[in-house]
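Example protein was shown:

_____
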Amino acid sequence: MFADLVRRGISHPHAVAFVKRAVITSDEPDSKVDVPAWGIVLLYVSFMVAVVGISLVSYMLHEVITTLCMVESPIAAITVSPSSADDKDAAEKEGLLETGPTITLVNQKPITASIRGTIKHLVAHAGRWARFRGLRIHFAHSILFSLASTFLSAALPRFPGQVIFVAALSGAAVANVHAAWTHKVVSMPNEKKFWQRLPSKADWKVLALPAAIESAMPYVSIYLTCGAAMLMGLHHVNGENVRELNGAQSASLIIRSILLVVFAITCTLFLCLPSIVTLVRIEASILPEDQDTIVPFDRTFGGKVVSQLMGGSGKVGFLDAWRSFNWEARRRLIKLFVKSFLILTGMVFVIAHVLIAEVFVVMGPAMGHFLRKAQAGEI
């Protein structure tokens, strides 16, 4: 997710080395930078608060709210309005029977159509911390998925596309944990423990395939995008080649780069997005019927699923899970992702400027001297 990319970028060895060079005192007298202890504490605390804040907001937007959007089934409200006096007079004149109230079906606006509305709904029904619900299970799933991936990567021989195969097996292995997280996010508050939320072994057979596909699709998209880049000759591009290009070649490079970005977005929309939506909706279909959902949810999936109480399986099929997610819901989900991206981008922009301002305040004029020497390649 977006916050993961930010954390990886900040924790990259080159970034860490740059910060160390900026704050550690050098042996050369002319390059000595005195950084007060309170300044180092301020920078570290600010950095950690920024990382935690971005991670929590990213989890709320990209995990909790989007999952509710994937599950929500908008409902129609029944509006009953009494007959007006004019209608009664007309009925009496025509000699008709007594008219009753007028019943109208009004399509309600989905709860997840608005980020603010979704948060208010969560807080009203599950408390102020509901916006981060399921966070501990999410951590457990991430750790278990990483352990499974590490073990399988070491155990399996190297072959082209191994990362896709490993991701699929890891996703299938921890499918029940991800389903428990989904149930925690979409259900009304209850006293069930983590172990009680885990689906049964029989349910794992239903979850394994969609979980494997969902885990593998991001890597499939990366492979396809890299293949497209190679077909367009972008893998030969480097700094020296770019400086030697003429006007027409530069325009061609820009066009090919834009096409590659469009191709990557297309892979995300048509491969990654359907896989995660399908998995979440299948997981929601096995939610015990004695548990209510925090957003409206059609357990019949448009009449395609028969409840277990009525003699059916109560589980939605792989294709029906995606087909029942109509175009209106898909557009709502895409808009939600775009809004989340803009919010997180704005947060990163503001936080980066705050951290830079703190660095200049802490280091004073020495910061400018350090940047000049770094630009000249003397550091």
